[in-house]
Write a structure and sequence with these properties.
Blueprint lengths: L3 E5 L1 E4 L9 E4 L2 H9 L3 E5 L5 H10 L2 E4 L23 H17 L3 E4 L1 H9 L4 E2 L23 E5 L4 H6 L2 E4 L6 E2 L7 E5 L5 E5 L6 E4 L3 H4 L7 H11 L1
Parallel strand pairs: 1-4, 1-5, 5-6, 6-13
Antiparallel strand pairs: 2-3, 7-10, 8-9, 8-11, 11-12, 12-13
Helix pairs in contact: 2-3
Length: 239
């Protein structure tokens, strides 16, 4: 049977028109397309703060993708807001915190993308750079203005990691983030870095399959199949 992959979703507040102020739940279609292409069954998981419902989500699904999205409330990792902090939604943070904890508790396969890896890190007690400009050494641009399927910079991949088994020593990726991991959380091992030292991927060796990546592999699939082995590895881990 094709594995069911739960995909976390986000809040979107309508900012114009006759439904001004209405909250909607969404996820970019690229995630759904990626799961379909890799042989999985995508299932969207609306954000809820009810622990029993979250546990039902996790029982229903064979594996998970924590999708990208907005910033995370810095209070969750003991910091005050940086001037370049962007919009966050505390209810979303709380919901996805519960979901991440339950996924890790049950040791189900997890691919955490962009905001997803940042959330994973904070749940595990790590911290974030609230904006790359706060980093105490020169860094390159990490939010490209070119199409989402374009390659933007290389990453170096650590030997012995799942990512290394899939892609080898180096990989060209896209980049759409202004926040990034600072201090890795408990159990997280850095497995890929950008040329400026920014953390691009982490894994949890004590778990069956937990990979967090800062780039957007689902977007790259709109231009080529280079990232397809990553999603297929998620499917295999579910079996």
């Amino acid at each position: 049977m094709n594995p069911v992959i739960g995909i976390s979703t986000n809040f979107l507040t309508v900012d114009k028109g006759k439904f001004l102020g209405m909250e909607r739940i969404y996820v970019n279609k690229d995630y759904v397309d990626a799961v379909n292409k890799a042989g999985g069954v995508p299932l969207l998981l609306p954000p809820v703060e009810d622990a029993e419902t979250v546990c039902r989500y996790v029982r229903l699904c064979d594996g998970f993708i924590l999708s990208g999205g907005g910033d995370i409330n810095p209070a969750l990792y003991g910091e005050t807001p940086h001037p370049k902090l962007e919009e966050f939604h505390s209810a979303l943070d709380r919901s996805q915190w519960l979901l991440t904890q339950e996924i890790l508790r049950t040791d189900k396969p997890l691919l955490a993308v962009c905001r997803g890896v940042q959330l994973l890190n904070v749940v595990q007690g790590g911290t974030l750079w609230q904006d790359v400009s706060a980093i105490d050494h020169p860094v390159m641009l990490h939010s490209q203005f070119s199409p989402r399927g374009d390659l933007f910079h290389p990453v170096d991949i650590a030997q012995g990691s799942i990512l290394h088994r899939i892609f080898g020593d180096k990989l060209e990726v896209n980049s759409f983030h202004h926040q990034c991991l600072k201090d890795p959380g408990k159990g997280l091992k850095i497995t890929a870095t950008a040329p400026d030292g920014i953390i691009e991927a982490v894994e949890m060796p004590d778990h069956r399959f937990v990979i967090g990546i800062q780039w957007h592999p689902e977007m790259l699939l709109t231009a080529s199949d280079t990232m397809l082995p990553l999603f297929r590895q998620l499917m295999l881990a579910c079996q």
